[in-house]
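Work Package 4 report. The design task specified in the project plan requires that, given a folded chain encoded as structure tokens, an amino acid be chosen for each position. We show below one input record used in the internal validation round.
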């Protein structure tokens, strides 16, 4: 009977330990390990090996200070963490940690002091989470990792219990042997007493082990920063960590003991048609870990969900709010869509009307765009509303109650000052105070004004229009972040208007030249045609080069505004390089627009020693938007040695950017571009190779002639001016080098720049 009781209690203990081990092992995104009281690593797990780079045999027994930067170790910070954990029971911190390969990562760590039943310190449990991706932009996830530590602890305890059971079995055999030899009643009673005492001790040890395992599990799960919940197979809540308990108190006004045992669908009936329910059911049915990003309309937030099926049929899950990151991504997509619309046509009134319909309902319920060219009376050229019937209502309001040109707020004030206005909340009292009569108040109330923004359209210092965005039916309230996004849209719209006006002016100039050429003699007609070609060049240059340059500036400004999250000093320096590259390209445009000066031979070349790696390594960042737009990949293969050429750095960059722009333009989506450098005797060779449409053999020299284009771009879009390669070869010759081409039709082309090497 005593053996059976002992076996039953052992099985219960092993079952408890196994449940504990399986629950902790299902957590994959955390490094969980134990330290002895002196801070040496005692256990190690898969998550710790993934995050820190050490295998178990390399790190166990070593002090945990190897995970800290030298300056933290010198200041005694690791020891301070242990002291605080021992003193208060728990210590949490975020800071730089060091992997085995010496690289640093930003981590969240929680150290929990572990004490025995007598209150003596027996070690520490340490949970580490890699937060580097969150700190850098946002865009990377942290996975729960706890399997190895729990398995090691469970295996160790299992081995101890097996050893104890073996010893107990040996003692039982010995007692039976003694029973066979003993005949006296006293000996029989003593044997029975010894068996009972052994069973009591075993039961007490099992209870102690179970309590220790439960305490260890609770401490680990409590240290997880995200809300963490465990469900059984009937969707009843079995466990919530402190962060999840706080969410239940905030949202449901319920304490943890009020939700334990409750069915999740009863607590959250709004999940019936929610994508969260779909993700839960998918993880439950697939019995595989699941990560999913979903939008919760009932709360108006984006969530990142992590679910881990449990061996007993239950489910463990955690979640975090990623609304800010998703809004930043949506803002970037919205700006890309706005840029596509603004660059789709040179009819700026039609383009702005399309923009107003893009803004509604993505950013506003009502959008109006007013143009006041040459500081004249504003003219409304575009109106869009989620309810088309209210467009007429808004026009009636404007006709009956035109805006006061001397008003100190609204469109007249924005046109006058060039400063944006934000009305985060428009209460009914404001409408009453601003209404001239009951009819105007009735119309404004019917329009449902709740929040508004007015941003200027400007080019340089000239303000020529304003865009008004109003929130009504959606009930949204505009913030400073919304205002910055609206200002960026207005800035791009102003650039599109400026390009359209330049196009109109260039067309007028071309028409004038054509009318003059019609009256000239045959000898002057050739000059008129050349002038027309140059005029076309100026028109295409305005559209072909300024639009991507403005996109470069826009993306850099978005990053500086912090839409993708905080930026580091190194990132700020990189953004500075991008802006400098943009300004440099604008100066190149001015050089090309003054092509007549180049033809006249008034070209100034300042040749100095230039390191090729410094020039070539920065090219990808300059053409990244074109590469993404064209769906083309890029690679840079540096020379085996550090080549220094004698060249004008600005002119060399102009040649390379001309070649790369042509390569992107004539390479279909999915193609590849490569830049490589090597030594050729006393010269350096820079090769730009693409997998594009290629050039016929009899046209390889013709492509270097002014205004010559051999083949149209694969996209079918507008071609270039035909001057890029001609200018590039002239610049190469002026620096003592050359520019040549090799090509196979439908296979690709290679353009090679040769430049003299600088003497040491």
């Amino acid at each position: 009977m005593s053996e059976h009781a002992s076996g039953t209690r052992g099985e219960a203990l092993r079952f408890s330990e196994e449940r504990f081990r399986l629950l902790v092992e299902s957590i994959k995104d955390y490094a969980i390990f134990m330290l002895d009281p002196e801070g040496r690593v005692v256990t190690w797990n898969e998550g710790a090996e993934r995050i820190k780079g050490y295998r178990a045999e390399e790190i166990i027994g070593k002090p945990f200070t190897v995970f800290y930067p030298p300056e933290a170790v010198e200041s005694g910070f690791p020891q301070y963490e242990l002291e605080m954990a021992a003193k208060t029971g728990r210590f949490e911190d975020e800071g730089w940690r060091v992997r085995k390969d010496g690289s640093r990562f930003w981590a969240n760590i929680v150290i929990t002091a572990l004490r025995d039943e007598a209150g003596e310190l027996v070690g520490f449990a340490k949970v580490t989470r890699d937060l580097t991706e969150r700190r850098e932009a946002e865009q990377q996830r942290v996975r729960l990792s706890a399997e190895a530590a729990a398995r090691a602890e469970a295996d160790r305890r299992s081995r101890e219990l097996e050893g104890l059971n073996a010893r107990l079995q040996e003692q039982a055999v010995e007692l039976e042997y003694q029973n066979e030899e003993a005949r006296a009643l006293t000996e029989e009673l003593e044997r029975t007493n010894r068996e009972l005492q052994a069973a009591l001790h075993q039961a007490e040890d099992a209870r102690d082990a179970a309590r220790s395992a439960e305490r260890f599990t609770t401490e680990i799960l409590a240290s997880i920063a995200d809300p963490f919940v465990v469900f059984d197979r009937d969707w009843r809540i079995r466990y919530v960590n402190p962060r999840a308990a706080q969410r239940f108190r905030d949202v449901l006004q319920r304490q943890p003991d009020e939700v334990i045992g409750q069915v999740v669908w009863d607590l959250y009936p709004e999940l019936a048609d929610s994508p969260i329910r779909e993700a839960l059911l998918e993880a439950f049915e697939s019995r595989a870990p699941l990560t999913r990003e979903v939008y919760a309309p009932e709360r108006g937030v984006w969530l990142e969900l992590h679910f881990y099926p449990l061996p007993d049929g239950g489910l463990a899950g955690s979640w975090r709010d990623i609304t800010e990151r998703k809004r930043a991504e949506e803002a970037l997509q919205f700006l890309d869509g706005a840029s596509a619309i603004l660059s789709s046509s040179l009819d700026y009134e039609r383009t702005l009307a399309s923009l107003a319909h893009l803004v509604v309902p993505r950013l506003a319920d009502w959008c109006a765009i007013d143009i006041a060219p040459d500081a004249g009376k504003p003219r409304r050229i575009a109106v869009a509303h989620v309810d088309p019937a209210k467009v007429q209502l808004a026009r009636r309001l404007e006709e009956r109650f035109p805006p006061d040109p001397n008003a100190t707020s609204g469109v007249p004030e924005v046109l006058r000052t060039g400063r944006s206005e934000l009305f985060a909340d428009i209460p009914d009292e404001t409408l009453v105070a601003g209404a001239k009569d009951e009819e105007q108040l009735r119309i404004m109330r019917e329009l449902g004004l709740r929040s508004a923004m007015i941003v200027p359209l400007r080019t340089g210092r000239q303000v020529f229009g304003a865009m008004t965005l109003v929130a009504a039916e959606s009930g949204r309230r505009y913030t400073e972040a919304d205002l910055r996004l609206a200002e960026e849209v207005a800035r791009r719209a102003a650039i599109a208007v400026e390009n359209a006006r330049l196009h109109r002016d260039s067309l007028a100039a071309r028409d004038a030249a054509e009318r003059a050429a019609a009256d000239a003699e045959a000898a002057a007609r050739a000059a008129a045609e050349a002038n027309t070609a140059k005029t076309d060049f100026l028109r295409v240059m305005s559209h072909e080069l300024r639009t991507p340059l403005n996109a470069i500036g826009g993306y850099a400004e978005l990053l500086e505004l912090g839409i993708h999250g905080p930026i580091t000093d190194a990132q700020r320096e990189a953004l500075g390089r991008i802006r400098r590259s943009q300004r440099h390209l604008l100066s190149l445009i001015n050089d090309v627009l003054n092509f007549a000066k180049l033809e006249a031979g008034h070209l100034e070349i300042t040749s100095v020693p230039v390191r090729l790696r410094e020039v070539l390594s920065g090219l990808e960042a300059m053409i990244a938007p074109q590469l993404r737009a064209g769906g083309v990949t890029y690679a840079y293969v540096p020379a085996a040695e550090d080549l220094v050429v004698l060249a004008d750095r600005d002119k060399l960059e102009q040649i390379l950017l001309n070649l790369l722009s042509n390569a992107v333009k004539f390479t279909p989506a999915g193609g590849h571009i490569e830049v490589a450098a090597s030594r050729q005797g006393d010269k350096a060779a820079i090769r730009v190779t693409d997998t594009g449409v290629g050039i016929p053999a009899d046209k390889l020299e013709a492509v270097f002639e002014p205004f010559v284009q051999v083949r149209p771009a694969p996209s079918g879009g507008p071609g270039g001016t035909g001057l890029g390669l001609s200018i590039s070869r002239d610049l190469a010759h002026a620096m003592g080098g050359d520019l040549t081409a090799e090509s196979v039709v439908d296979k690709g082309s290679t353009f090679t720049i040769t430049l003299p090497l600088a003497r040491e």
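The CA atoms of residues 23 and 743 lie 62 Å apart. Validation will be extended to a larger panel in the next phase.
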